Amino acid sequence: MPLCVRRNRPREIPVTHEPPLGDEPQLPINPQVPHPARIYDYLLGGKDHYAADRSAAEETIRRAPQVRESARANRAWMLRAARYLARQGVRQFLDVGTGIPTSPNLHEAAQQISPDCRVVYTDNDPVVLAHARALLSSSPEGRTAYIQADLRRPEEILGAPELWATLDRDRPVALVLSAVLHFVRDEEEPGRIVAAFRDALPPGSYLALSHTTNDIQPRRAADAAAVYGERRAAALMVPRPLDQVEALFDGFEVVEPGVVQLPHWHPEGPVRPRLLDEVWLYGGVGRLGGG
């Protein structure tokens, strides 16, 4: 399935949005503070962002034009990973750091392989909450749910009633951390966060993870990441080298071809050599033994 990128003209999303699902409280949106989810939406050609998000994204593009291609490659990787996992028999997914919906969503890719797949989405951006209904458009055979929470507090996600009301604790789950852990600072211990999820998953579960790197063009990567600090974004970006990304798979058996640049992970066609200079992310999939 080709990557679907929306080309709509950018618009100002309203500060007040449709009521959240269920009894969840209305969460404040600060249009003056750039948020990674809305910056990512802009890089993908979406239209759900504020002027502050667009300004931060454009400055990042000015310093490192490759970031737009990296965003597209990450989206394409996530869809490939979802289909791969569904082909391995996985029917349950936990997508942490979902971002603003861009069709096809993860559940659409997984349900393309098996319509009975179940997906729980979670994000900390209230704008994503405003679009939760798009994330809940499951096939009749499957099911989706949304949790408003921050990945830095995995215990809140793991303790949310929506999670285990949607997923079966006794069946394998694919934990998807797509381009989100590079927004966790070292002192916030990204490895501890992954381990907390890992220890709560049943045997035979999987981890699908992608992460920005500073291995390819260190100076430009540092310049691009600095924008998040300079613009006082909701989260800073921390690119990491390959060995640190590989360490996040601790406890998982990484499947072939390993943790690699995204274009090399189960490509659906020839990989253009130039693309390897433009995509600054590693990604991989690991399996939790015992199942």
Brief summary:
The protein has 291 residues and is an alpha/beta fold. The chain is 36% helix and 16% strand.
Notable features of this structure?
alpha/beta; Rossmann fold; eight-stranded mixed β-sheet; two-stranded parallel ribbon; 12 helices; 36% helix; globular
**Domain module count:** 1
- Tertiary shape: globular
Low-confidence stretches: 1-26
Strand residue content: 15-25%
Helicity level: 25-40%
The H/E string reads EHEHHEHEHHEHHEHEHHEEHE
Sheet with the most strands? 8 strands, mixed
CATH architecture: 3-Layer(aba) Sandwich
How is the CATH topology named? Rossmann fold
Task: Compute the number of helices.
Answer: 12
What is Rg? 18 Å
Structural class: alpha/beta
Distance between the termini: 30 Å
Overall residue-averaged pLDDT value: 88
CATH class: Alpha Beta
Number of strands: 10
Name given to the CATH homologous superfamily: Vaccinia Virus protein VP39
